[in-house]
Design brief:
about 15% strand; alpha/beta; globular; about 325 residues; seven-stranded parallel β-sheet
């Protein structure tokens, strides 16, 4: 089978590069820019003709869409580009897969929720109530995929981090090592997600597609939730990062989110119910602190070159 991965130079895309080594299938890694040392095929996923040409040229059966506009605050003033990447591009990818009887794996977000108060984990069939442009455009992307008629797996995730790129874990590693005191919000709760765990889940789904897709129909097509297990606030997350890293000199204090003015109201509780994905694919999901420990070990004490991980590390 031939799999095309978009956003291959981002957090999740880089983890997909790693897990794809388990497979004998052909993976084509694409992005809008190239990075030295990375095998990347240039592709603008907002260009329908370019997408269709590549799908035909490479005989693509599955697209894994790891690309998105993710700057939540900036999206409020950059709505056109945000919608182009988060809503229009998924539609183009979905239509390309519909044309060749393929399947689209699309990564979405917990930010499709947040407008209504709740304190129980969000299910896949819960109505989307986004509170900002980012969440709204991601919800529109989901709807466009569903309306295309293609076979799809939409994976909503949350609080993504990894050894690659910019993310909360790497930022807090630096701040807790260099600042005497930090204030971190405690009134927003969710679950951190290690991008490697999400990539492994996507790999399992692709393997399932190989076994069960027949005549352009995949019986497990639908929306699923994936994050690590457990619940914490951003404050708890930061405390654990500092503790595991041995950064004991920083006084980390809890604060309310209104102490950090933002153009976007973020979800106060966006824990995702993962019952469906575990039952459908038999996936065992690690607890968030266990995965955080693994990521921090790679960041603080990178593996030796023979293991290959740091050869594609681009902090």
């Amino acid at each position: 089978m031939n799999i095309l991965v978009t956003g291959a130079n981002g957090q999740l895309g880089n983890e997909m590069r790693l897990v794809s080594r388990q497979s004998e299938d052909k993976y084509v890694f694409t992005d809008v820019v190239t990075i030295e040392g990375q095998e990347t095929t240039l592709l603008d996923m907002t260009d329908a003709e370019a997408v269709n040409r590549m799908v035909d040229a490479e005989g693509i059966n599955v697209i894994v869409n790891c690309a998105a506009y993710t700057n939540v605050d900036k999206a409020e003033t950059d709505e056109a580009l945000c919608r182009r990447l988060n809503a229009d591009a998924p539609r183009i990818l979905a239509e390309a897969m519909k044309r060749v009887d393929g399947l689209l794996v699309h990564v979405s977000t917990d930010y499709v929720f947040g407008g209504d108060p709740y304190n129980t984990p969000c299910r896949e069939d819960q109505k989307g109530t986004p509170t900002g442009v980012y969440g709204q455009t991601k919800l529109e992307g989901e709807q466009a995929i569903q309306q295309s008629g293609c076979q799809y797996v939409i994976l909503r995730t949350a609080w993504l981090y990894s050894e690659f790129g910019k993310n909360f874990v790497k930022t807090m590693l630096n701040l807790t090592a260099t600042k005497p005191q930090l204030k971190v919000v405690f009134d927003q709760c969710g679950t951190p997600t290690y991008a490697l765990d999400l990539a492994q889940a996507i790999f399992s789904i692709v393997e399932d597609v190989k076994c069960k897709m027949s005549n352009g129909v995949y019986p497990n097509s639908g929306i699923y939730h994936f994050s690590n297990e457990g619940v914490c606030s951003w404050y708890d997350f930061t405390k654990m990062i500092a503790e595991m890293a041995g950064h004991n000199g920083c006084d980390i204090q809890p604060c309310h989110s209104n102490e950090f003015p933002s153009p976007v109201k973020r979800p106060a509780y966006s824990v995702l119910d993962k019952t469906k994905i575990k039952e459908t694919f038999g996936i065992c999901i690690p607890y968030w602190t266990d995965s955080l420990r693994k990521c921090l070990q790679n960041l603080i004490s990178p593996p030796q070159p023979s293991l290959g991980r740091e050869t594609i590390l681009n902090p």
